[in-house]
Amino acid sequence: MRKRFAEQKQRLQACGLNHVVYLVEGSMSQQTTVMKGGLEDALCLTEFRDDFLVHMSQNADDTVAYLSAIHRRLLARFPRAQCLNPELAALCPSRFLSSVSTSFATLFATPPISFAEFNRKFQKRANFSASEMYQRMLTQIPSLSTAKIAAIVHHHKTFDQLIASMQSIDQLDQEKDASVSRLCQIRYGEKNQLLDARTRNIIRILFQSDDYNVS
Protein backbone atom coordinates (compact mmCIF):
# COMPACT_ATOMS: atom_id res chain seq x y z
CA MET A 1 0.00 0.00 0.00
CA ARG A 2 2.85 2.39 0.82
CA LYS A 3 4.44 1.84 -2.60
CA ARG A 4 1.13 2.38 -4.40
CA PHE A 5 0.61 5.60 -2.44
CA ALA A 6 4.10 6.86 -3.34
CA GLU A 7 3.63 5.87 -7.00
CA GLN A 8 0.34 7.72 -7.20
CA LYS A 9 1.87 10.90 -5.78
CA GLN A 10 4.82 10.61 -8.15
CA ARG A 11 2.51 10.38 -11.16
CA LEU A 12 0.51 13.39 -9.95
CA GLN A 13 3.69 15.42 -9.50
CA ALA A 14 4.81 14.52 -13.02
CA CYS A 15 1.59 15.87 -14.59
CA GLY A 16 2.68 19.51 -14.49
CA LEU A 17 -0.01 20.73 -12.07
CA ASN A 18 1.21 23.06 -9.34
CA HIS A 19 -1.73 22.75 -6.93
CA VAL A 20 -3.03 19.24 -6.39
CA VAL A 21 -5.90 18.49 -4.01
CA TYR A 22 -5.44 15.09 -2.38
CA LEU A 23 -8.88 14.14 -1.12
CA VAL A 24 -9.22 11.31 1.42
CA GLU A 25 -12.70 9.96 2.02
CA GLY A 26 -13.75 8.00 5.10
CA SER A 27 -12.72 7.65 8.73
CA MET A 28 -9.12 6.77 9.49
CA SER A 29 -10.19 5.04 12.70
CA GLN A 30 -12.13 2.47 10.65
CA GLN A 31 -9.12 1.38 8.59
CA THR A 32 -7.90 -2.13 9.32
CA THR A 33 -4.86 -2.50 7.05
CA VAL A 34 -2.97 0.62 8.15
CA MET A 35 -2.84 2.09 11.65
CA LYS A 36 -4.32 5.55 12.17
CA GLY A 37 -0.95 7.02 13.18
CA GLY A 38 0.65 5.79 9.97
CA LEU A 39 -2.09 7.35 7.85
CA GLU A 40 -1.80 10.66 9.68
CA ASP A 41 1.98 10.72 9.16
CA ALA A 42 1.57 9.91 5.45
CA LEU A 43 -0.99 12.66 4.91
CA CYS A 44 1.13 15.16 6.85
CA LEU A 45 4.15 14.41 4.63
CA THR A 46 1.92 14.62 1.56
CA GLU A 47 0.81 18.12 2.53
CA PHE A 48 4.08 19.64 3.72
CA ARG A 49 6.76 17.73 1.80
CA ASP A 50 4.91 17.13 -1.48
CA ASP A 51 3.01 20.44 -1.31
CA PHE A 52 -0.41 18.85 -1.93
CA LEU A 53 -3.58 20.31 -0.44
CA VAL A 54 -4.90 17.43 1.70
CA HIS A 55 -8.60 17.39 2.55
CA MET A 56 -10.39 14.82 4.71
CA SER A 57 -14.06 14.07 4.00
CA GLN A 58 -16.22 11.75 6.10
CA ASN A 59 -18.42 10.32 3.34
CA ALA A 60 -19.52 10.72 -0.28
CA ASP A 61 -21.89 13.59 0.54
CA ASP A 62 -19.07 15.49 2.24
CA THR A 63 -16.84 14.88 -0.80
CA VAL A 64 -19.49 16.19 -3.21
CA ALA A 65 -20.02 19.28 -1.05
CA TYR A 66 -16.28 20.00 -0.99
CA LEU A 67 -15.87 19.58 -4.76
CA SER A 68 -18.92 21.76 -5.34
CA ALA A 69 -17.38 24.48 -3.16
CA ILE A 70 -14.16 24.34 -5.18
CA HIS A 71 -16.21 24.61 -8.39
CA ARG A 72 -18.06 27.67 -7.09
CA ARG A 73 -14.79 29.34 -6.04
CA LEU A 74 -13.28 28.77 -9.47
CA LEU A 75 -16.32 30.18 -11.24
CA ALA A 76 -16.30 33.22 -8.93
CA ARG A 77 -12.65 33.92 -9.68
CA PHE A 78 -12.72 32.98 -13.35
CA PRO A 79 -16.22 33.67 -14.74
CA ARG A 80 -17.41 31.24 -17.38
CA ALA A 81 -17.55 33.97 -20.02
CA GLN A 82 -13.79 34.48 -19.65
CA CYS A 83 -12.86 30.78 -19.75
CA LEU A 84 -13.73 29.97 -23.36
CA ASN A 85 -10.09 29.58 -24.42
CA PRO A 86 -9.22 33.30 -24.45
CA GLU A 87 -5.68 34.61 -24.59
CA LEU A 88 -3.78 34.11 -21.36
CA ALA A 89 -3.42 37.86 -20.87
CA ALA A 90 -7.22 38.22 -20.80
CA LEU A 91 -7.87 35.21 -18.60
CA CYS A 92 -6.91 36.83 -15.31
CA PRO A 93 -7.63 40.57 -15.34
CA SER A 94 -6.35 42.66 -12.44
CA ARG A 95 -9.71 42.67 -10.64
CA PHE A 96 -9.26 38.93 -10.03
CA LEU A 97 -5.51 38.76 -9.48
CA SER A 98 -3.38 41.72 -8.53
CA SER A 99 -0.24 40.37 -10.22
CA VAL A 100 0.67 40.10 -13.88
CA SER A 101 -1.31 38.12 -16.43
CA THR A 102 1.04 35.13 -16.20
CA SER A 103 -0.19 34.53 -12.64
CA PHE A 104 -2.67 32.02 -13.98
CA ALA A 105 0.17 29.81 -15.20
CA THR A 106 2.01 30.34 -11.92
CA LEU A 107 -0.95 29.50 -9.71
CA PHE A 108 -2.18 26.57 -11.71
CA ALA A 109 -0.57 24.50 -14.47
CA THR A 110 2.76 25.66 -15.89
CA PRO A 111 2.10 25.82 -18.75
CA PRO A 112 -1.69 25.32 -18.77
CA ILE A 113 -2.57 21.80 -19.95
CA SER A 114 -5.77 20.26 -21.23
CA PHE A 115 -7.55 17.47 -19.40
CA ALA A 116 -6.58 15.05 -22.18
CA GLU A 117 -2.91 15.93 -21.70
CA PHE A 118 -3.22 15.59 -17.93
CA ASN A 119 -4.91 12.21 -18.33
CA ARG A 120 -2.17 11.02 -20.68
CA LYS A 121 0.59 12.02 -18.30
CA PHE A 122 -1.17 10.61 -15.24
CA GLN A 123 -1.95 7.15 -16.59
CA LYS A 124 0.26 4.26 -15.56
CA ARG A 125 3.07 3.40 -17.91
CA ALA A 126 3.17 -0.01 -19.54
CA ASN A 127 6.72 0.02 -20.87
CA PHE A 128 9.81 0.63 -18.76
CA SER A 129 13.50 0.84 -19.55
CA ALA A 130 15.96 -1.67 -18.07
CA SER A 131 17.13 0.99 -15.60
CA GLU A 132 13.56 1.74 -14.50
CA MET A 133 12.81 -1.97 -14.04
CA TYR A 134 15.99 -2.28 -11.98
CA GLN A 135 14.79 0.50 -9.68
CA ARG A 136 11.27 -0.93 -9.45
CA MET A 137 12.68 -4.31 -8.46
CA LEU A 138 14.78 -2.70 -5.74
CA THR A 139 11.60 -1.25 -4.22
CA GLN A 140 10.57 -4.80 -3.30
CA ILE A 141 13.50 -5.12 -0.88
CA PRO A 142 12.45 -4.45 2.73
CA SER A 143 13.79 -1.25 4.36
CA LEU A 144 14.81 0.32 1.02
CA SER A 145 13.35 3.81 0.79
CA THR A 146 13.25 5.92 -2.37
CA ALA A 147 16.32 7.86 -1.22
CA LYS A 148 18.30 4.67 -0.57
CA ILE A 149 17.35 3.23 -3.95
CA ALA A 150 18.40 6.42 -5.73
CA ALA A 151 21.79 6.27 -3.98
CA ILE A 152 22.32 2.60 -4.83
CA VAL A 153 21.41 3.14 -8.48
CA HIS A 154 23.76 6.12 -8.64
CA HIS A 155 26.69 3.92 -7.56
CA HIS A 156 25.61 0.67 -9.25
CA LYS A 157 23.75 1.27 -12.49
CA THR A 158 22.64 -2.35 -13.02
CA PHE A 159 22.03 -5.53 -11.05
CA ASP A 160 25.26 -6.94 -12.46
CA GLN A 161 27.24 -4.04 -11.03
CA LEU A 162 25.47 -4.35 -7.68
CA ILE A 163 26.17 -8.08 -7.42
CA ALA A 164 29.74 -7.66 -8.64
CA SER A 165 30.37 -5.13 -5.89
CA MET A 166 29.73 -7.86 -3.34
CA GLN A 167 31.63 -10.68 -5.01
CA SER A 168 34.92 -9.83 -3.35
CA ILE A 169 33.51 -10.41 0.14
CA ASP A 170 32.87 -14.14 -0.31
CA GLN A 171 36.17 -15.14 1.30
CA LEU A 172 35.75 -12.84 4.29
CA ASP A 173 34.41 -13.81 7.68
CA GLN A 174 30.61 -13.74 7.77
CA GLU A 175 30.54 -11.28 10.65
CA LYS A 176 32.66 -8.80 8.74
CA ASP A 177 31.51 -9.15 5.14
CA ALA A 178 28.53 -6.77 5.30
CA SER A 179 30.50 -4.03 7.02
CA VAL A 180 33.40 -4.08 4.56
CA SER A 181 31.36 -4.41 1.37
CA ARG A 182 31.10 -1.50 -0.99
CA LEU A 183 27.53 -0.94 0.11
CA CYS A 184 28.80 0.60 3.32
CA GLN A 185 30.32 3.45 1.29
CA ILE A 186 26.99 4.53 -0.17
CA ARG A 187 25.43 7.69 1.26
CA TYR A 188 21.83 8.75 0.74
CA GLY A 189 19.35 11.51 1.52
CA GLU A 190 19.72 15.16 2.41
CA LYS A 191 21.68 14.28 5.57
CA ASN A 192 24.19 12.26 3.55
CA GLN A 193 23.73 9.19 5.76
CA LEU A 194 25.43 5.84 5.23
CA LEU A 195 23.34 2.77 4.50
CA ASP A 196 22.60 1.10 7.80
CA ALA A 197 23.91 -2.38 8.60
CA ARG A 198 20.46 -4.01 8.45
CA THR A 199 19.84 -2.74 4.91
CA ARG A 200 23.27 -3.90 3.76
CA ASN A 201 22.69 -7.32 5.31
CA ILE A 202 19.29 -7.70 3.63
CA ILE A 203 20.78 -6.90 0.22
CA ARG A 204 23.70 -9.27 0.81
CA ILE A 205 21.45 -12.12 1.95
CA LEU A 206 19.07 -11.59 -0.96
CA PHE A 207 21.78 -11.82 -3.61
CA GLN A 208 24.33 -14.11 -1.99
CA SER A 209 22.62 -16.50 0.39
CA ASP A 210 20.49 -19.60 -0.03
CA ASP A 211 18.75 -18.82 3.26
CA TYR A 212 16.44 -15.79 3.17
CA ASN A 213 15.61 -15.64 6.86
CA VAL A 214 16.39 -12.04 7.85
CA SER A 215 16.55 -11.27 11.56
Automatic annotation (TrEMBL):
Its cofactor is Mg(2+). InterPro entries: EME1/EME2_C, ERCC4_domain, Mus81, Restrct_endonuc-II-like. Keywords: DNA damage, DNA recombination, DNA repair, Endonuclease, Hydrolase, Magnesium, Metal-binding, Nuclease, Nucleus. One of its GO terms (molecular function) is 3'-flap endonuclease activity. Its EC number is 3.1.22.-. GO terms for cellular component: Holliday junction resolvase complex; nucleus. It is found in: Nucleus. The keyword Nuclease applies. It holds the Pfam family ERCC4. Belongs to the XPF family. This is Crossover junction endonuclease MUS81. It comes from Albugo laibachii Nc14. The lineage of its organism: Eukaryota, Sar, Stramenopiles, Oomycota, Peronosporomycetes. The gene is AlNc14C76G5106.
